[in-house]
């Protein structure tokens, strides 16, 4: 399992599990495909912030499929 805390692990087109802002209390995960990486720093303790293809924004908790 690859962690979502390191920016270099995450690339557009990957399938990931993210926590949306409104789900941070519950920890509910949302699955989607990365469109844009929003975090500029190389690491983030709460997960790298990304925008999914459907426009939802959240922090990556887990990389499901690195897409090759």
Reading side by side through the largest sheet, how are the strands ordered? Answer: 1-2-3-4
The proportion of residues in beta strands is: 35-45%
Any idea of the CATH topology?
SH3 type barrels
CATH secondary-structure class = Mainly Beta
Helix/strand structural class: mainly beta
Shape: globular
Number of helices: 0
Give the radius of gyration: 10 Å
Number of extended strands = 4
Q: Give me the oligomer status.
A: single chain
Describe the structure.
The chain is an all-beta fold and 68 residues long. It has one domain: SH3 type barrels, CATH 2.30.30. Helices cover 0% and strands 40% of the residues. The protein has no helices and four strands. A four-stranded antiparallel barrel has the order 1-2-3-4.
Descriptors for this entry?
four-stranded antiparallel β-barrel; mainly beta; globular; SH3 type barrels
Produce a short descriptive summary:
The chain has 68 residues and is mainly beta. It has strands at residues 15-20, 30-37, 49-52, 57-65.
Please outline the helices and strands.
Blueprint (H helix, E strand, L loop, with lengths): L14 E6 L9 E8 L11 E4 L4 E9 L3
Antiparallel strand pairs: 1-2, 1-4, 2-3, 3-4
